[in-house]
What we know:
- The longest helix has 19 residues, at about 195-215.
- The chain has one domain (about 5-295): 3-Layer(aba) Sandwich (Arginase, Chain A).
- Strand 5, helix 7 and strand 6 (about 195) form a beta-alpha-beta unit.
- It is α/β, with parallel strands linked by helices and about 300 residues long.
- Strands 2-1-3-8-7-4-5-6 form an 8-stranded parallel β-sheet, with helices on both faces.
- The protein contains 10 helices and 8 strands.
- Bound molecules: manganese (II) ion (MN).
- Manganese (II) ion (MN) binds near residues 126 and 227.
- Manganese (II) ion binds near residues 102, 128 and 272.
Amino acid sequence: xxxxxxxxxxxxxxGQGRRGVDMGPSAMRYSRLQEAIAAIGHEVHDLGDVEVxxxxxxxxxxxxAPGGMVYLETIVQACEETIRRLGELDPExxxxxLGGDHSIAMGSVAGxxxxxxxxxxxxDAHGDFNLPETSPSGNIHGMPLAALCGFGDxxxxxxxxxxxxxxxxxxxxxxxxxxxREEGLLLRRHGVMVxxxxxxxxxxxxxxxxxxxRKLANVPxxxxxxxxxxxxxxxxxxVGTPVQGGLTYREAxxxxxxxxxxxxxTSLDLVEVNPILDRENHTCRVxxxxxxxxxxxxxx
Length: 300
Ligand SMILES: [Mn+2]
């Protein structure tokens, strides 16, 4: 089925402390993302990037490393702009939003939802469900899933429009293996479905994808937010927060293929690729291949 795809970059590195993740959008373009999607038969438009200030231009106190709450207003502005840009698209268009760190998802998920009920498949080593008061690092890229569900700093929760953008029962986290203690308790308390790597090992992704699609069967829109660190660092070395024991190359493809087969995915993010930490752009190439699988590329 041929669709119209819109690529939007959000070169954000203020949600965490490692520099370089802001180069993700250009590195994924360099890895021929547009060509890979067009080869499937889709019409692809590249909308360019949302403007994100570089940290040196913000003239903040030098004691503040990127990542902390001091960058919140700047992140809010970039997310607002992301929501505005996505809102201009025809609702039938499938946005592919390129990060940047995962804080961009507060803008992309809100914008892609278009205010409709949306299922959110968060493929990530981490839960990203911290609150400012529970976060050990204070990094905002550890908070976007909580903020989307209505928890945390009100300036993040009320991005775009007031209140939660996603119902916790419409969220599924897949690939988790590094949850902070308080974060784990919050995810449980709010009834977010979490498939850890242990569950991936035990049940396999075929069963997990079936369960996820059944759980979200009555939700009209589906957003996939793919964090490169969900993959094993052997497969995706170019990430700021690598955790051993992640998805293999084939597991990640299988998950994308199973979601593609459902023909229900309406938008996606590709985030947390750090080209500075990568090996010869390998991680970008994998992310581009996974995006193509999710958008319907088949082997035969
Ligand atoms: Mn993440």
